[in-house]
Design a protein that fits this description.
InterPro entries: Histidine_triad_CS (IPR019808), Histidine_triad_HIT (IPR001310), HIT-like (IPR011146), HIT-like_sf (IPR036265), Probable_transposase_24 (IPR004252). Keywords: Coiled coil. GO terms for molecular function: adenylylsulfatase activity. With 298 residues, the protein is an alpha+beta fold. It has eleven helices and five strands; from the N terminus they run H-H-H-H-H-H-H-H-H-H-E-H-E-E-E-E. The protein has three domains: 50 residues, no CATH class; 89 residues, no CATH class; 133 residues, no CATH class. Strands 1, 2, 3, 4 and 5 form a five-stranded antiparallel beta sheet that branches. The radius of gyration is 44 Å and the shape is rod-shaped.
């Protein structure tokens, strides 16, 4: 039975369902016959004609549908799943092409962003106090959080991004420094190699002493790890490079001493101190005759 607000009062009362008490039904008929309620019903009828994407739930609410789906699936359902369930018929087909197209668009946009962002992209901004596709009673703060929470999340995200950018800049700077150090090392090694290519060729004293000016910012110490058990040196590649350069420097010092008419030899003053099982050496190469060369240069 259905109450017709525009029909005779007696006829509407006669349509009373058996399970409803008479006094309640009469009050309902009179309520529906009020001018303001009749005007609202007429406006709702007009509004329904403007709908381009009607749902297929009938009198069932979105909240009831969501509860049924969660019990059936054993988990929470998404907004996209609710949209599909509320706009398809019993055979799985969509109510119309508009609903089908919007559902496909939601799935595509959800892959590159959040569900909430996907709904905003497809349907536009939410109306105040309402969340599209979630039914009555669900407010934006339940889905999106409060504005203050969103602000805090944005601030935290901004701070995290700033830290990431700073770390990237630091890594880039370190890479440049490593590359520059490698270039300086190759430059030093190339100079030494060229000078030792012909042992019979005289090496000018000022060329040897100028070696200390090639890399003025070099560290003032070289770390040498002594041999450990089983005859392993324990040296890193970087330390092996410095020792190789040290060997060239010692050889050149001897050549200079010979060609300068000094005694055939030189002495090394070693300043060392314990550091676990490692020793740190600071070498001063004193050519006989008073000249001095330092290793590392600096």
């Amino acid at each position: 039975m259905k109450c017709d607000p525009n029909g005779p009062r007696e006829a509407n009362i006669a349509r009373k369902p058996l399970e409803i008490p008479l006094e309640q039904w009469v009050a309902f008929v009179d309520y529906r016959a009020r001018p303001d309620k009749k005007a609202k019903a007429e406006q709702n009828t007009i509004n329904r004609t403007h709908q381009t994407m009607p749902h297929t739930l009938g009198s069932k609410s979105i909240a009831r549908l969501e509860n049924e789906m969660e019990k059936q699936l054993g988990r929470s359902v998404t907004r996209v799943e609710l949209f599909q369930a509320s706009h398809t018929t019993s055979d799985g087909s969509f109510a119309n092409e508009v609903a089908r197209h919007n559902h496909e668009d939601l799935i595509i946009r959800s892959q590159g962003s959040s569900e909430n962002e996907a709904f905003t992209s497809v349907f536009g901004k939410e109306h105040p106090g309402y969340v599209r596709g979630m039914g009555l009673g669900v407010v934006p703060t339940q889905i999106y959080g409060s504005s203050s929470s969103s602000s805090r999340r944005n601030e935290a995200s901004g701070g995290t991004q700033a830290e990431i950018n700073e770390l990237r800049d630091t890594v880039q700077l370190l890479r440049q420094q490593v590359q520059e150090n490698e270039q300086r090392f190759q430059q030093q090694l190339s100079i030494l190699t060229q000078q030792l290519a012909n042992q019979n060729q005289n090496i000018a004293t000022n060329q040897v002493l100028a070696f200390r000016d090639i890399e003025p910012q070099a560290p003032t110490r070289i770390l040498i790890i002594p041999k450990v058990k089983d005859g392993l040196s324990g040296l890193s590649k970087a330390e092996e490079r410095y020792i190789k350069i040290l060997g060239y420097l010692l050889y050149m010092a001897k050549v200079v001493a010979n060609q300068e008419g000094l005694d055939d030899g030189f002495r090394i003053v070693i300043n060392d101190g314990p550091n676990g099982y490692q020793l740190v050496y600071h070498l001063h190469i004193h050519l006989i005759g008073g000249r001095q060369m330092n290793w590392p240069p600096g």
